[in-house]
Amino acid sequence: MSMPTKAFSVLGLPVHVITNYSGWLLERLQQKIGTHVVTLNAEMVMQAERNTTLAKVIQDAELVIPDGAGVVLYLRWQLMQKVQRTPGIELAEALLHELGQKGIDAKVFFYGGAPRVAVKAADFWLEQIPRLDLVGTHSGYHSAEEEQQLRQTLTQVQPQVIFVGLGVPRQELWIAQNRHLCPQSIWIGVGGSFDIWSGTKSRAPTWLGNNNLEWLYRLYQEPWRWRRMLALPKFALKALIYEEGAGSREQGAGKRE
After folding, report:
1. Other CB atoms within 10 A of residue 12 CB
2. Residue 168 region, left (φ>0) first, then alpha (ψ -120 to 50), else beta?
3. Adjacent-strand bridge partners of 110
4. pLDDT tens digits, one per residue of 172-217
5. φ/ψ bin of 112: left (φ > 0), alpha (ψ from -120 to 50), beta (otherwise)
6. Which end of the chain is more exposed for a tag (fewer CB within 10 A), N or C?
7. Which residues have a Cβ under 8 Å from the Cβ of 88 and sit 6 or more positions away?
8. What CATH number labels 106-202?
9. 3-class state of residue 15 by DSSP
10. Where are the domains of the chain?
């Protein structure tokens, strides 16, 4: 199985554009090809600019999807690509539904969130899909000894689909450091998805998501995030400068020819 055929650069980071992400992941799952899925948004792009380790993890990931509105608008306006936003939570939900509907025998594991949140998220999904083989959960708040026990559990159980909700960049770095424990598994960083599934928080109304304003609802729910939201205008400015620089380089190359 090869990489997705359409890969585009967003400020030096890859974004893979295919029509059916969950279908592609199911093929990888059935062929036992380990995969790290990154859900890229503008905030993560700006973090990667400052954090070379995070940038390397994103560049090495087998699948990077356009999660954030800023990334999608960059692909549409700067690269003229007909791209639809694919929130990580929706990809995770589609994958879980497909596992249940198609009766695919795959063990699923939830790691992350505050105490009991992953458990409640698991209960929610088992109500939706009773046949889902959800083999375990683990809170994102724990001691070093408990994390070592988590690693041992993953090694022994070998879940094939592992959702990690630790927030950015912690979840991406943790996956990169630990995916060798289950080398044939699908690893997906799902941010705050466990909070949504457990009922702890709610998603933005559809009309906000459709107008690329889901970030505004998150700011309403979590006002402490305002500093992190400053990444959005920084991303827009950086994208403009990056594109102008690329245009200047192309013109210079044309003159030399």
Report:
1. 12
2. beta
3. 137, 163
4. 999 999 999 999 999 999 999 999 999 998 775 665 556 555 655 5
5. left
6. C
7. 37, 39, 65, 67, 188, 189, 190, 191, 193
8. 3.40.50.2300
9. strand
10. 14-23+36-86+209-251, 106-202
